[in-house]
Protein 1
Amino acid sequence: MNKTFSLLSLTFALLMGFVSCNSTVREPVDERKSKDHGDPISVVLTLTPGTLVNQVFTPQLNPTMPQRSRQTIEYSLQKEIGWAPKAGSNAGFEVYQASEDPTQVYRLDIHYYDLEHKDITYQFVENGQDKIHQHFFTAENVKTADGTLEHKEVRSNAVFDYVYGDTDPWSQEMGNNGVRWIGKDNPIGFKGYFRFKQVRNFEINTRLMHARISKYSRRDHTVSPFYAPTPGQRSEDAWDVTMRFPVSVSAASTTQK
């Protein structure tokens, strides 16, 4: 009886240990507590006017016109005030309202740098980091040309449209051999395309979400639109970077090309 009891006890202990190990392996990792990327100290945002045809972007620049020039904002993490434009950097962007030509766009490129000013953008994409990171772009403090607040246009897609232009490989351009457009199914936002629909003055709140487990919905594996992270994402997930910069949209001009 003692041998039988001991054997049963040993078998039970082994089974419980097996179940325990399996449970530990299957438990989701909280990605907020085990970041596999560095902490950016500065960010460079570059806005370039051009055309997007068959997923290939072509710059169209006119150096004599601010709205048709390449514009850059350099943000840095500063003591007491947080993320803010560096001294000497542009504070915001000047753009034209979208024309009837759907190929006319503004491309925004985002690059992150560490304390030594080394580009660490790749760290947010490689080794599975692309599955838990996504930029969001929301309109805040929206005003008409005469200064009237447009409350209904805040945090919506009424002011601008944005298309995630991310590619695989992430640093390559569409049109090159082997490069795939993944922005629709795997939006990150290190490059993407704006069309500004209204003559407005507003701020774009730009945030990089670091998901607790995944940026994809558990229910249907969808992703949130560029302007609307879910309530759960806003409250539960981490945000690696938060920036806010002004945009001034002028009426479309026949001389803008």
Protein 2
Amino acid sequence: MSDITGLQILSTLAPDGRLTVSLAEQTLPAPTGSQVVLRVEAAPINPSDLGLLLGSADVDHAEYGDGYLVAQMPEASMRAMASRLGEAMSVGNEGAGTVIAAGEAAEAQALLGKRVTCVPGGMYAQYRLVDARACMVLPDDATAEQGASAFVNPMTALGFVETMRAEGHKALVHTAAASNLGQML
């Protein structure tokens, strides 16, 4: 299989505080070994995704164009984000889709044509190169939308409950009870 080209969302914070969110073309190499190429069909928007995507940028006064937005980041937020200055960062922690290409390893070949979910980061993209061992095959009757949120909220709920138990507490308070996380708790 040859290289695969598609779009991905990038978030870049400039030293002057301009945050640019853009669609950028990416070319993925053909998968090798245990790698697979996933055609991304669904990716949720988690609070951690929003933090990387937009942070506390002033989107009300942003400049919008064809495939991009530019917004100003408040000065107070710049200090906390110093480590990402000038870095074009891919967004989207988790997602699901169909494996369309696979490396030669048996675990990769076994996923060809299957709908899987994974949490490799960079899932706000049309295609993603992922290690097959990081993928979880979805049941035949599960949609990509149903499988896309299989990691972040469940692991957060588990972390809450296990920490509560380990520290000897009998209850926890979570104020967003109608959220997906709240429903899991």
Protein 3
Amino acid sequence: MKTFVEDTSIVKKIWSTTDITLFIFAGASAEFALNKQVDWLYFTGRLPGDPIGRLFSTVKYAQYIIFKEEKEAIASIGKINAVHQNVESARGYKISDEGYQSVLYMLIYYSIVSFELFERRLTTEEKDDIVSTFARIGHHMQIHDLPFDYKEWKKKYEYQLAHNLQNSSFTGDLFKQYRKHLGAFRYFLLLDIQRILVSRQVNHLLDLGRPRLVQLLIPVYRLIRKYKWHKELIVMMVPTKFKEQVKAMDQR
């Protein structure tokens, strides 16, 4: 059975690992809050109403696309397109290519930095694989002008960081919602994880500052991971109602 992403792809290794996937979205949640087109998800009210639930919904869709048979994955992308088209129709105009591109670009970036934080440095070929995989997803989403290798993506991503981010009222409100739905301690961990992962530009716009506790714990956590003792710790780090969804994320 041919899957949308080849079994040998580094993308499957990255997105089959629960803690790496959670870190991808922890980092992306910071950058996404700065996106100039974040107002699109405020239009439906679903993002501010349940930001953590939206995260797990996005993870579920992403893993479905990456791990399922090719025809099923493409059909799933078609459903995502239909949802977006319905929102566009209700609002009266289309989401720009730049809006879609920025989401794909940040998933590429946080896939790379999160994997390298826990595992090892990626080769150029592996980075090219990550970029081309998300470009294929973007192609089926009818997104134009996407890079297909790491070198080209890096130029476009740096441009996007410089021109398509801003700290707006939506940014502040979204971080308030993160705190409300996570609680004080988990919110503290989220910010500290973001300090480790995000680019200098994102850190500057959010005024996150330097990493604190999590950076000190990463070497110990890497050791715990080698012996598979970390899985219960991961489950403890999310609100109770999402524990089963976290367990379901492990694709190995």
Protein 4
Amino acid sequence: MQRLSRRGLLRRVGAGLAAAALAAGLGLGLSACRQPQADRAAGRTIQFWTLDLAPKFNGYIHGVIAAWERQNPGYRVVWTDVPWGSVERKLLAAVFARTAPDVVNLNPLFAANLASKGGLLPLERVLPPGAPQGYLPLIWRAGRSAGPDGQPAQFAIPWYLTARITLANTQLLQRAGYSSPPRTWAEVPAYAEAVKRRTGRYALFVTVVPDDSAELLETLVQMGVTLLDGRQRAAFNSPEGRRAFAFWTDLYRRGLLPREVVSQGYRRAIELYQSGELAQVGSGAEFLRSIQTNAPGIAAATRPFPPITGANGQANVAVMTLAIPRQSPVAAKAASFALFLTNGANQRQFAEQARVLPSSPQALRQLRAELGAASPATAQEALVQRARLLSADTLGRATVLVPASPGVKRLQAIVYTQLQRAMLGQVSSDAALAEAERQWNAYAQGRWPDAADHRREAGRNP
């Protein structure tokens, strides 16, 4: 069965950022001129780009296109799949040549960067009434971000998802005196201490490497931290933020986190878990197959559990979306195709082939029912089925915890770098938080000046 792993999805979630930053820096948005200009005037062709889905999903994509074309006589969809290694070059070349697609597969952060520069179409103009009801409400909001005027709008349609769950080594849990891992972050310190004291291993690994996983930034949100205010200024230097910085600083200084969290990324968590040095890891359900292949002994002791959350029980989800460039001459039909591709029936089929989760409530209900009724042939497949069902159930309380907004990668780098300093004992956690606030606000002031700054600038340049 073809499948798309959580790691594969996370590669998708991060792969376009460099291209987005370059496009934003040039002040360019996606136009939408895939055909020669004479052909575009007819407005009968939709250019559709995906990221690294060919050739595995050729049959599925071509089938969806053919079905839509039958319902829309006279129109045709031309599909282009862009390999990861050349996505930046191809996208920038298309922007400069004004040959970018009409429907493009993006992650929320990529979409937010392009939308902030005027490159994407606000979808309220082309979506039919009731369109949001076809998607999980919290997931639909992941496509909402600020336009060039700073006002929020819906710029993207959700497509496929993965939700993080906890995979835990039950042998280490039992030795530490636990039958299951913690459900909330408040329970983690006592758990981490018990695991270290009774097993000599570590409970968990959450990286603080600035350009790696956003998981730690997501934990701050789960702990009640508001990252930014409506003016894009720092809101994290708050009582909740001080508690969260102290939480991670204390765990590290007490030796309850692997020393490498400040120097190595998520890949190291996988290595430690598969070698039996880590009691749990946050990942997608399909990662179980990798453990079964790479570390059969660890896999035999591994069981899926709900993800760690904050007090409100909210979990994180990674989303892939579809967007429409602002200058597309076939925007209404492009929206029609994007909605068709992401309807319940089509999402259900893709979710099974790619082993991801759908953003359609209808497809999610079908997936849950089928997983619950399935009879796996082996114990290994039964465990994967159980993990997939748990992952699907998690979507009921899952959202994109770190909202997509331009500059969020800079925010992560600033927060992580200052938290590293606190962990390593160079400054107190409160001082690190205050410095993160200062650095972010200096960046935000330059990128999003206050109205007063605009007025002063206008006075200098009449």
